[in-house]
Amino acid sequence: MLLLFIDRSFTVPSFDVQVKLGRGNMEIELEQGWEIIERGITRLKNILEGLPEPKFSSTNYMELYTTVYNMCTQKPHDYSQQLYDRYRESIEDYINSMVLPSLREKHDEFMPRELVKRWENHKVLVRWLSHIFHYLDPEFIPRRSLLPLREVGFICFRNLVYHAFYRDLRVWVLSLIDQEREGEEIDRALLKNVVDIFVEIGMGRMDCYDNDLEAAMLKATAVYYSRKASNWILEDSCPDYLFKVEECLKREKDRVSHSLHSRSEPKLLEKVQNELLSLHENQLLENKDSGLHVLLRDDMVDDLSRMFRLFSRLRYGLETVADLFRQHVTGEGTALVKQAEDAASNKKCLSEPDSVGLQVFVRKVIELHDKYLAYVSDCFQNHTLFHKALKEAFEIFCNKGVSGSSSAELLATFCDNILKKGGSEKLSDEAIEETLEKVVKVLAYISDKDLFAEFYRKKLARRLLFDKSANDDHERSILTKLKQQCGGQFTSKMEGMVTDLTLARENQTSFEEYLGNNANANPGIDLTVTVLTTGFWPSYKSFDLNLPVEMVKCVEVFREFYQTKTKHRKITWIYSLGTCNLIGKFEPKTMELIVTTYQASALLLFNTADRLSYSEIMAQLNLTDDDVVRLLHSLSCAKYKILIKDPNTKTISPTDSFEFNTKFTDKMRRIKIPLPPVDEKKKVIEDVDKDRRYAIDASIVRIMKSRKTLCHQPLVMECVAQLGRMFKPDIKAIKKRIEDLISRDYLERDKDNPNLFRYLA
Amino acid sequence: MPRASKRKAAPASSSSVTAPPPDQSRSRTAKATSKTRLKESDQIDNLFDTYANSSLGQIDPEGIETLCSDMKVEYTDVRILMLAWKMKAQRQGYFTKDEWQAGMKALKANTLLKLVKTLSELKKEAEAPQNFEDFYSFAFKYCLTEEKQKGVDIESTCELLKIVLGYQFPSQVDSLVEYLKVQKDYKVINKDQWMGFLRFCKEISFPDMANYDENQAWPLILDNFVDWKKQKSGGR
C-alpha cells in the first residue's frame, strides 16, 4: 500500500520507499506502539509551535503509519479503539496545553490574530494526524459508526477553542465592520480569515456562521443604519440622501465580497435598504422641498434615475413612486386645463371664441406627454408601473373638456388646423408628421374616441369638399396612424371619403368628355360635380333650395350623364356644400365673387329685382330662417357688403330689406366671401349618441346570442369591455337598451331570477 | 255616471237543457238535486242576461257599472278587478258569457247576493302570495286595450297602482305615483317595469331603501325613482 503525503511543510519530490508492511510475528504492545507514535506527534506539535525540529521526513511518516497499521491489523490485540481515542486525546491535549493559554493572554486584535494562526495550525495538525492514523478510516470507523478522524479533530477545536472565544471574536468582527463604515482603514485580510473560521468550523454546514456571526451582524447593521437614517433624513435633501444610500449599498456589497461570506449579501443589503429606504420612503418621496415632485419639476434626471434604481430594489418600492408620479402628472395636466379654461372665459368676456387658446392647450398637452414619456423611458427604464401611471394620469385630465368643448372635439380641431390650408400651424412636413403621430398617441387616453371620429370626419369633409386640405399625403398618413391605433373600423369611412374625391376627379373627366360629345347637353355654365358615397360622409340635410334658373339646367344635364353611368343609384343634391364663382358687375369695376351656392342663389335674385325684403328672399329661396339669416349676414353685415341692408344694423331681422350695392368695390379683382359654417357640435353629439345606442344594442345582442343566458352584472361588464375601444358606455344607457330589447322581444327576464336574462331566438 | 236605463227582460235561454227521463230507481233527493243544479246554471245565465247588452251578447261597461251599483261596490274597487281576474276576462270592461259562467261557477255563486258574499273571499284568494303575482300581472294585461299595445300610459298606471297595490303598500305607491307624474323619461309603462314595481314593494325596505342595489337588473325607471326619492329626502 502506497500513500502519498502532500503537505505544505513537507514535500515529496519522489516517493520510492520500500515499505516493510509484512506482518511479522511480532505483536506490538499498546504502550510500546504508542510511545513511537507519540514521539512523532510531539515532533509535529513542536514544528507547529515553531520550535527547532529536524524536518519530518517521509520515512518518519511511514514509520508512524506502519505502526498504526500493525496495531490495527494484528491479532488478537487489535488496538483500533484505543488508537482512535488517543488520537482525539492528543489533539485535546495539545489544545489545552498550548493553544488555549496562548489565546487567553492575547487582547484586542491580537486575540483574533492568534486565533487565526492557531486555527490554521490546527488544520495542519489534523491533516497530519489523519494521515498517520489513516488506517482507521476505511474499516474501523465505519464499522463502529464513529465520526471520521478529520471531523473528530475539528470538533475538538470547536468545543474547546471556538466555543470559548467566538463571542469575543464576534464583537471584534462587528466593531471592525463599523470602523470601516465610519471610513477607517481596517485589516481586511484578517477580517476575512476570522470570518472564514466561522464558516469552516461548521464542517460543511453554515450553522455556526449563520447563528453565531451573521445574525448578530445583521442586527448590528440594522442598528447602525437606523441611526444614520434618522440623522440624514433630517439634514439631507432627498437626492443627497439617495446618493448616500447608493454609496452605502455599494460599500456594503464590496465588504461582503472582500470580507464576508457571499450568502450574507442579499440579507445584508436587505437590512440596509430596509433601514434607509423602506422605513423612510414616504418621507423622502413626499419631501416638499426636494421630493419626487420637485425632481420632476426641476428635471433632475440623474437623481430620478437613482431614485428608480434604489426603490426598484424594494419589493413594493416602486408602487409609491409610481403613485406620486401619477399624482404629479395629473396635477400638471389639470393645471393646463384650468389655464385654458381661464383664458377661454376671459376671451368669452370679449365675446370671441378662443380658438387660438384651445389650439395652444392641445399643443401643451402633447408637450406634457412628451416630457413625461421621456422620464418614463429614460429615468424609469420603461417600467410598466410608470407607463400605467402616465396613462392613468392622462386619462384623468384628458377627458376634461375646456370651455364647453370636449377633449375629443379639441383634438379634432387641432388636427384640422394642422391639415388645412392656411391653418394656424405653420410647420415643416417632418414636424407635421411628428405632431400627427403624437396626437394619435394622446387620442389613446380619450375615452370618447367615437366622438373624436365624428368631429374629425366632419372637419375632414369640409377640408376635402372646399379644397382646404393642404397635403394629401398627410391626410392619408394620419389615417394610417389612426387605423393602427384604433382599428380598421375607425377609419374605414374616412378612407372612403378620401377615395371618393379621387374617384370624383375621374368622374368629372368623364363628365367633361360627355359634354364634349353631346352639343345639346350644354349646361351653359362650367359645372363641377363631386359625387359622394352616402355611407362614408357625414349626413347633411338637403333642403329643397330653389335653384336659380341658370343652375337648374346644370343639374338636369348631370343627372342625364349619371344615368348613362349607372342606373342603380340615386343622387341627392346637397346644395349647402357647393361653391359658385359669380361675376359681379359693379360700377367701380367688375369683380369675381367666390361664394357658396346658397349665397349665389340669393345674389342672383337681385338680377331681376333691385330691392327685396327678408321674407321675399326667404320665400323665393325656400330655405329656413337660420340659413337665410346666416347667408344674408355674410353678404351685408360682414367684411364685404355686397348687399345694403335697411336698417343698417349689425344683425339680420325678419323685417329687413336688402338692396344690391352697385358701388361695392375692393382692391382685389377676385374675393372670397366666406359663409361661416353652422356649429356642428350639437349635431355631432346627437349623431354619436344615436350611434352609441345602436352599438350598445348590437353588443348586447351579440353577447346574449352567444351566451344564451347571462346575469345582469356580467352582461353589463362584457358590454363595457366590448365597446371600450370606442367609448365608455354609460351604465344607465346600457340598462335602458336592455329594457328596450326586452320590450322588442330580443331578451326576456327569467321568471325565477329577475337578475338573469335569456336570449330569445 | 248615469245608471243603465235598460234592463234586460229576455227569458232565460236555458231551454236547451232537457231533463232526463224520469227514472223510477232514482231517489227523490237526487231528482231534486239535479233540478237544483239546473236551476243554478239557469240562475247564472239569468244574471248574465240581466246585465248583458243583448246586441253584443256580452256585458259591456255600462252593464258592469250597473252590476257594481247593485252590489253596492264602487266601480273602482279592487274586487271588481279581481272578479275580472277570476273570470279570466280578456277585454277590459266586457264580460263574455263563457267568462261569466266560468267565473260564477268558480266562485260558487249563482245569485247576486252570493256573489257579493264571495267578494271578500275572492279578495283573500287574490292576495294569497301564490296568486297575487298572477293577479297583479293580469291587472296590467287587462289595461292593454288596443291590439299590439305594449304599454300603459302614466295616468292609467298610477290609477292602477293605487287600486292594486295601494292598500298593501300605501307609502310606496304614494311615492311612486308622485314620481311617475313628475318624471319625463317615460310616457308609458311596459310589462317589465310594471312587474318591477311589485318586486320593489316586496323586496325593498321602505322608505330607507337601504337594500336597493342599482347594479342589479332593476328597471332603469326604478333606479331613477330611488335617486329622486333619496334626493328629495335630503340626499345621502
UniProtKB/TrEMBL annotation, chain A:
A single GO molecular function term of this UniProt record: ubiquitin protein ligase binding
Domain Cullin family profile: 406-636
Source species, domain of life: Eukaryota
One Pfam family of this chain: Cullin_Nedd8
Assigned keywords, A-Z: Isopeptide bond, Ubl conjugation, Ubl conjugation pathway
Coiled-coil region(s): none
One GO-annotated biological process of the protein: ubiquitin-dependent protein catabolic process
PANTHER family linked to this entry: CULLIN
Assigned protein family: Belongs to the cullin family.
Protein name, entry field: Cullin family profile domain-containing protein
UniProt organism field: Linum tenue
UniProtKB/TrEMBL annotation, chain B:
A GO term from the CC aspect: ubiquitin ligase complex
InterPro entries documented for this protein: DCN-prot (IPR014764), DCN1-like_PONY (IPR042460), PONY_dom (IPR005176)
Transmembrane portions of the chain: none
Region described as Disordered: 1-39
Residues spanning the signal sequence: none
Organism encoding this protein: Linum tenue
Protein name, as recorded: Defective in cullin neddylation protein
DCUN1 domain mapped to chain residues: 39-230
One matching Pfam family: Cullin_binding
Entry GO MF terms: cullin family protein binding; ubiquitin conjugating enzyme binding; ubiquitin-like protein binding
PROSITE patterns: DCUN1
Role of this protein: Neddylation of cullins play an essential role in the regulation of SCF-type complexes activity.
Gene Ontology terms: biological process: protein neddylation
Coiled-coil regions listed: none
